Amino acid sequence: MKKILVTTDFSLVANNAVNYAADMAMAISADILLLHIVQTPIGYSDLPIAISLEDMMRTAEKDMQDLKDEITGRINGKINIEVQVGMGGFFDELKHVCEQVKPYAVVMGSQGKTAAEHLLFGAHATHAVTNLLWPVITVPPGVSFSAIKKIGLASDLTKVVESTPVDEINLLVNDFNAELHILNTGKKQVFDADIVFESGMMQEMTMELNPKFHFISNENTEEGILDFAEKNQIDLLIVLPRRHNLLSSIFHKSHTKQFVLHSHIPVLTLHR
């Protein structure tokens, strides 16, 4: 059974991602695992004894049950929802749970509305997409799930055989019965022989999906990808961090944060 893991800290941004994940789960008949991580304050051992980890856990467990009840009521109990509360560092705990459940995808909010939320969610999201080996879907604030009809795959069409997780892409496209649009962004108006060869290889690898290719000329890679995706009603954008030169430039230091934080559509990262 597919299982979608979604993280929450009970904020509006996080709970919007929970709703997105629940609706996605209904579309593909998946279960949901809601995960909240109680992060131990730095220097906890030096804090007054009145601050109890047991109290923090009890509060979190109650809040998680309330959230589960709310989501279950909204979807009329159509999917199975589990809850789990962990304690420790956010990324260590998230990775540990992923290793246990091997999720279909990890869903999380990509950004917040306030300055503090923007920093927090941006740090969590960008770290997750570049370090977790499982698929991660980052959901912008206010974006709700609707049928995924168009999936975009951003590629620089370089060494596609070695760098493209074809099986995972096939599974995703087939699960949602979606169209696949392959986006290549470059600075040249005329594409060289290597691009022509690699696009042919990509066509052969994804033949069963009947993909549509789009060659975009833009000096700014991030801008070119996001502009095309938004104007062409792409419902989910796939990026392959650390595999393509195109995307290694995006998913490097500040570029990673800018890409995740600026996208107005959900972004799915896949690792080979």
Keywords, please?
2 domains; Rossmann fold; elongated; 10 helices; 10-stranded mixed sheet; 20% strand; 272 residues; alpha/beta
CA(first)-CA(last) distance: 22 Å
- Which percent range fits the helix content? 40-55%
Summed up, the domain count is 2
Under the CATH scheme, the architecture of the largest domain is 3-Layer(aba) Sandwich
Mean pLDDT: 84
SSE topology sketch:
Blueprint: E1 3-7, H1 12-28, E2 31-38, H2 53-74, E3 81-87, H3 90-101, E4 105-109, H4 115-131, E5 136-139, E6 150-154, H5 160-163, H6 166-176, E7 179-186, H7 193-205, E8 212-217, H8 221-231, E9 236-239, H9 245-250, H10 254-262, E10 267-269
Parallel strand pairs: 1-2, 1-4, 2-3, 4-5, 6-7, 6-9, 7-8, 9-10
Antiparallel strand pairs: 5-10
Commentary on this structure:
It is a single chain. With 272 residues, this protein is α/β, with parallel strands linked by helices. The chain has two domains: 3-139, Rossmann fold (3-Layer(aba) Sandwich); 150-269, 3-Layer(aba) Sandwich (Rossmann fold). It contains ten helices and ten strands. A ten-stranded mixed beta sheet has the order 3-2-1-4-5-10-9-6-7-8, sandwiched between helices. α2 (53-74) links the parallel β2 (31-38) and β3. Residues 113-120 and 251-256 have low confidence and may be disordered.
